[in-house]
Amino acid sequence: ESIAFKAFRVSSSGYVRKKYVREFVFQKCQSKCMNCGETQELHIDHIESVYLCFKNKRFQYCNTVDNLQLLCSDCNLRKGKKS
Known about the structure:
Layout: H1 3-17, H2 19-28, E1 42-46, H3 50-55, H4 59-62, E2 68-72, H5 73-82
Antiparallel strand pairs: 1-2
């Protein structure tokens, strides 16, 4: 894993942890999983993964609210297995 990717991943995590970003994503997604509608155990997920953004040089898009969604734990795990 390259140092550049590690740095990009850390900056991406920092963006998602910002309170105003989290509040906006929960509001945008109406506090429910975008796959199944679940309202418990929600996680903020990158629609296009941090890895793909880095690989495809889509740095500015990766850390935007347009690339974030809410997924419940189960849907997030399923998505991770597909990647």
